[in-house]
Specification:
Helices cover about 5% and strands about 25% of the residues. It is mainly β and about 130 residues long.
């Protein structure tokens, strides 16, 4: 079992937390202007990294606050825990500048001014998965 260090409450058992997916995924500035393919890409396409991965976590039975974590997906070793809206640290825990993919807003789960341009979004797949609908 993991011992996760909440930035607000301190170290707690992993059963108090809920995984929230990949961190630093900026919300599109104009979601109504996205095509169906671009919207699907934003919603469902995430990295599946083997090694150090930035994740979002919710302390659901404690302070109920979201935070980010750098965790090794192979060894489950937690490299860093940091508040939402702050840049991703490197693997050693030192803060580094993002390359424009992270939201600088205080609540980066719903807003962001650093959203990718929809005109530069590349979608490599030309066919929808089996069972997908418009």
């Amino acid at each position: 079992m993991l011992l996760i260090s909440c930035p607000n409450c301190g170290s707690r058992d992993e059963t108090e937390f809920h995984y929230g997916g990949q961190a630093h995924v900026a919300y599109p500035e104009n979601p109504n202007e996205l095509t169906d393919k671009e919207w699907a890409h934003f919603l469902f396409y995430r990295e599946n990294t083997k090694g150090i991965f930035a994740e979002r976590w919710l302390h659901s039975t404690g302070c109920r606050q979201w935070f980010n974590m750098l965790r090794d997906t192979v060894t489950y070793d937690i490299q860093a825990v940091y508040p939402m809206g702050t840049p991703r640290p490197d693997a050693g825990g030192t803060l580094t500048a993002e390359s424009g993919t992270a939201s600088t807003a205080a609540d980066s789960t719903t807003t962001g001014s650093a959203a990718p341009s929809t005109s530069t979004t590349s979608i490599t797949s030309t066919t929808a998965p089996e069972g997908a609908t418009k």
